[in-house]
């Protein structure tokens, strides 16, 4: 399998894995802070790096049925959120290909 090459980000605010601080995204990629996950507040990001995808599954969420994959830190395997693969409702299609990072599962990296 080999080693995973990690991407290091730069920007005003960098967010990393809540366990090992591997860079995940920056404040410039936040689309919304008005989301909720299993652990509470969550942010919608347009781009996230250094994650691997879990298996696809259909989940019934507050906004309807979605096909999602859990996303794991590529360094330590910690689950940090999920990625929207498919939204079944037309009004939710903007989420497809976007990422949710749960606030309790990531941290600001200084």
From TrEMBL:
<keyword id="KW-0862">Zinc</keyword>
<feature type="domain" description="Yippee">
    <location>
        <begin position="13"/>
        <end position="110"/>
    </location>
</feature>
<comment type="similarity">
    <text>Belongs to the yippee family.</text>
</comment>
<dbReference type="GO" id="GO:0046872">
    <property type="term" value="F:metal ion binding"/>
</dbReference>
<dbReference type="InterPro" id="IPR039058">
    <property type="entry name" value="Yippee_fam"/>
</dbReference>
<dbReference type="InterPro" id="IPR004910">
    <property type="entry name" value="Yippee/Mis18/Cereblon"/>
</dbReference>
<protein>
    <recommendedName>
        <fullName>Protein yippee-like</fullName>
    </recommendedName>
</protein>
<keyword id="KW-0479">Metal-binding</keyword>
<dbReference type="Pfam" id="PF03226">
    <property type="entry name" value="Yippee-Mis18"/>
</dbReference>
<dbReference type="InterPro" id="IPR034751">
    <property type="entry name" value="Yippee"/>
</dbReference>
């Amino acid at each position: 399998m080999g080693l995973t090459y990690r991407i290091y980000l730069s920007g005003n605010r960098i967010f990393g894995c809540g366990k090992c601080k591997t860079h995940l995204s920056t404040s410039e990629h936040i689309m919304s802070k008005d989301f909720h996950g299993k652990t509470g507040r969550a942010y919608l990001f347009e781009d996230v790096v250094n994650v691997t995808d879990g298996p696809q599954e259909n989940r019934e969420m507050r906004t309807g049925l979605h096909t999602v994959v859990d996303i794991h830190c590529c360094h330590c395997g910690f689950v940090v959120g999920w990625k929207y693969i498919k939204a079944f409702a037309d009004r939710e299609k903007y989420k497809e290909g976007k990422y949710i990072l749960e606030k309790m599962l990531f941290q600001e990296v200084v």
